[in-house]
């Protein structure tokens, strides 16, 4: 067993599946001898690393670490580190105590009465606290205490009374008074406070000395600790491996998954390392659907290890774990079988796409045989985000922030978010160039497009038709996005048969295209004019694509209504019937083809909202005037020029920069904070809305998830070498 574990671990290839105890005569194995001791040492090493704050940067060159070196050096390091850590804890405790005493001294310094005068009387009771001296005096005057005197300074009150302390306390209950304990010490509280401050400085110096000594230990031993941790982690991993095996007195079975193309390499290396005592048995080569069942398979002849007698016969499909019987084994040997009901998943996306894998895993990891939506996420989310923000300045900032996360942080998740941020920032900058905007200003359009950028956001009345155009584009984007999801689902359902694919997925496609073709054909006059006809946004107002909507094919007039029945609705109702045949319960959700597409109008809504916010920020700072339905910021001219040219009614706002120095300073603050707010809200609005469209609308059409990460038995060495 140990030879096999060593060989398989070195190959770093087998994703081991845990034995579930279902085979008669086989029990889960026990960890190897010495594993508990290794685990204890590993805990010690990691504790020392935590105390010394050891990081990867402290590693130094790789090294060979022997068991003897760990045994000898670890105890020495542990003793030194623990002694210094104990000293540091003691000094920290003393320092906290002194700081607490310093904090309690502040009111007594304010009061200015020697500390020894505030306690120790036989016939007087003294209490010190914070409160209203007039109220305290009034309360005492109404009490049974006849003789008392108050000393007060800045809300700190000392009460001297010829009475029992309990009686004085009872009398003060009716006043606003918070009692303070008189600290230890004698004499002037200011002098005593100076002594405490000096003691604090001494303790801080001691603490600094101890921390310097710990830092020296970190520099001396960090490389050893990192290497020792790696070696012990590898030994612990190997020692605990039998816990996943099925074992008898003389044999064991380990089962798992490897990539099929590496099987020959695995078999050759393991047979060479272990010899005849192990049999390697490939159960089946199969494709799996999203439910984990074999769809197609290749029969595999089971042969004994190293060309021995067959151990089993060919198989058609792996049996369920509860029914499959273990293979015959030789005495004092083992069987490595390649199979399990649920294969692990290796995501193999291009490097530029990989940052989006973590966003997909927020929902779930794709199952084996299921479409991985990462590439689709990569192709659509940055475009959605860039379209909604569409500004060169913001895009470059998102790009820079994303690059900072990607290049500076160690967390894989934050690196992935940085990669996503770079793609989103790049598309935001691209759309910003097309819109001709930088931080909401239109000067970029003047420079790049001579004042005529190819696209407008539709915020200005002169370009208001663009707002309707982007609303229509959002609907079309939703149709395409949802159709892609249902097409993926159609392909996946083909594994169940063509009829299942048509009824479960094709039905939704028919309903989607039937309903929206009916809308874009005119919808019997109910659809808005901008969606179709010569006044449609794509027929030349404002986008000159010449698209005036789809043809309207009316089959007959609905009796009693006089309204024509469109052929496009036949597709919709045909899909509805197919859906009912597949699952009648889903019929109640038939309006999803309408509401899901309408959900994409949030793209146009966020576009206008962000443009409006940036416009208001610039309007307050620069000021602006309106002319022929266009807004122009007062950057090169003051409001007086605009009034002389277009009249006072053209001024939208004169601008804080043109209203004096004080107003200009306030304007700068508004300009900076305002654009930072737009930048942040771009993530929380455009980012979250784009992610929502991916998760809720798109993923819900075909993606289930639930896959397991491919995690081979092995270890990638970073700090140790065996040579």
UniProtKB/TrEMBL annotation:
It is found in: Membrane. The chain crosses the membrane at residues 375-401, 421-445, 466-488, 508-527, 565-582, 603-625, 661-683. Residues 290-304 have a biased composition (Basic and acidic residues). Keywords: Coiled coil, Ion transport, Membrane, Transmembrane, Transmembrane helix, Transport. Residues 290-339 are annotated as: Disordered. The keyword Transmembrane helix applies. InterPro entries: V-ATPase_116kDa_su. GO terms for cellular component: proton-transporting V-type ATPase, V0 domain; vacuolar proton-transporting V-type ATPase complex. One of its GO terms (biological process) is vacuolar acidification. Residues 67-101, 193-220 form a coiled coil. GO terms for molecular function: ATPase binding; proton-transporting ATPase activity, rotational mechanism. It is a multi-pass membrane protein. Belongs to the V-ATPase 116 kDa subunit family. Component of the A-type ATP synthase that produces ATP from ADP in the presence of a proton gradient across the membrane. This is A-type ATP synthase subunit I. It comes from Haloarcula japonica (strain ATCC 49778 / DSM 6131 / JCM 7785 / NBRC 101032 / NCIMB 13157 / TR-1).
């Amino acid at each position: 067993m140990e030879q096999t574990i060593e060989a398989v671990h070195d190959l770093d290839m087998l994703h081991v599946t845990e034995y579930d105890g279902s085979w008669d005569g086989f029990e889960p194995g026990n960890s190897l001898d010495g594993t508990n001791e290794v685990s204890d040492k590993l805990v010690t090493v990691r504790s020392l690393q935590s105390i010394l704050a050891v990081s990867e940067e402290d590693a130094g060159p790789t090294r060979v670490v022997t068991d003897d070196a760990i045994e000898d050096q670890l105890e020495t390091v542990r003793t030194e580190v623990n002694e210094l850590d104990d000293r540091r804890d003691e000094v920290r405790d003393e320092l906290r105590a002194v700081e607490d005493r310093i904090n309690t001294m502040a009111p007594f310094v304010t009061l200015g009465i020697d500390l020894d005068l505030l306690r120790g009387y036989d016939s007087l009771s003294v209490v010190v606290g914070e409160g209203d001296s007039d109220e305290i005096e009034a309360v005492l005057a109404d009490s049974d205490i006849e003789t008392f005197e108050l000393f007060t300074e800045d809300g700190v009150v000392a009460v001297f009374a010829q009475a029992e302390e309990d009686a004085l306390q009872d009398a003060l209950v009716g006043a606003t008074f918070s009692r303070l304990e008189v600290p230890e010490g004698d004499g002037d509280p200011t002098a005593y406070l100076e002594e405490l401050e000096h003691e604090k400085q001494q303790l801080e110096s001691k603490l600094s000395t101890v921390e310097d000594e710990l830092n020296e230990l970190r520099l001396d031993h960090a490389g050893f600790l990192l290497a020792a941790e790696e070696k012990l982690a590898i030994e612990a991993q190997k020692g605990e491996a039998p816990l996943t095996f099925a074992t008898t007195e003389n044999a064991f079975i380990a089962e798992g998954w490897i990539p099929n193309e590496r099987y020959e390499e695995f078999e050759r290396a393991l047979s060479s390392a272990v010899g005849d005592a192990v049999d390697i048995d490939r159960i089946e080569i199969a494709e799996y659907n999203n439910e984990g069942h074999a769809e197609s398979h290749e029969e595999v002849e089971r042969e004994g290890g190293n060309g021995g007698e067959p151990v089993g016969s060919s198989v058609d499909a792996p049996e369920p774990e509860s029914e499959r019987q273990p293979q015959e084994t030789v005495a004092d040997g083992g069987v490595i079988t390649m199979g399990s009901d649920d294969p692990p998943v290796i995501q193999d996306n291009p490097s530029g796409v990989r940052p989006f894998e973590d966003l997909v895993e927020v929902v779930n990891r794709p199952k084996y045989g299921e479409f991985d939506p990462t590439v689709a996420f990569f192709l659509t989310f940055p475009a959605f985000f860039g379209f909604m923000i569409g500004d060169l300045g913001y895009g470059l900032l998102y790009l820079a922030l994303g690059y900072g996360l990607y290049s500076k942080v160690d967390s894989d998740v934050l690196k992935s978010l940085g990669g996503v941020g770079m793609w989103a920032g790049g598309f935001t900058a691209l759309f910003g160039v097309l819109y001709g905007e930088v931080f909401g200003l239109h000067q970029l359009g003047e420079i790049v497009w001579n004042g005529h950028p190819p696209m407008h956001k539709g915020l200005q009345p002169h370009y208001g038709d663009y707002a309707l155009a982007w609303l229509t584009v959002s609907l079309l984007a939703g149709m395409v996005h949802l159709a892609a999801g249902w097409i993926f689902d159609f392909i996946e359902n083909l594994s169940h048969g063509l009829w299942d694919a048509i009824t479960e997925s094709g039905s939704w496609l028919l309903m989607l295209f039937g309903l929206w073709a009916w809308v874009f054909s005119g919808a019997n006059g109910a659809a808005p004019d901008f969606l179709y006809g010569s006044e449609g946004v794509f027929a030349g107002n404002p986008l000159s694509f010449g698209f005036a909507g789809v043809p309207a094919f009316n089959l007959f007039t609905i009796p009693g209504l006089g309204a024509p029945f469109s052929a496009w609705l036949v597709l919709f109702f045909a899909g509805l019937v197919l859906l009912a045949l597949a699952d009648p319960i889903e019929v109640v959700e038939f309006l999803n083809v309408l509401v899901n597409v309408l959900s994409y109008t949030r793209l146009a809504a966020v576009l206008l909202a962000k443009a409006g916010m940036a416009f208001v920020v610039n309007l307050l700072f620069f000021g602006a005037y309106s002319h022929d339905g266009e807004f122009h910021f007062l950057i090169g001219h003051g409001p007086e020029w605009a009034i002389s040219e277009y009249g006072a009614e053209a001024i939208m706002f004169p601008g804080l920069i043109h209203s004096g120095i004080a107003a200009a300073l306030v304007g700068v603050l508004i300009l900076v904070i305002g654009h930072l707010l737009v930048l942040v809200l771009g993530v929380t609005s455009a980012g979250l809305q784009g992610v929502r469209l991916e998760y809720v609308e798109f993923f819900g059409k075909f993606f289930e998830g639930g896959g397991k990460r491919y995690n081979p038995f092995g270890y990638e060495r970073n700090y140790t070498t065996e040579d």
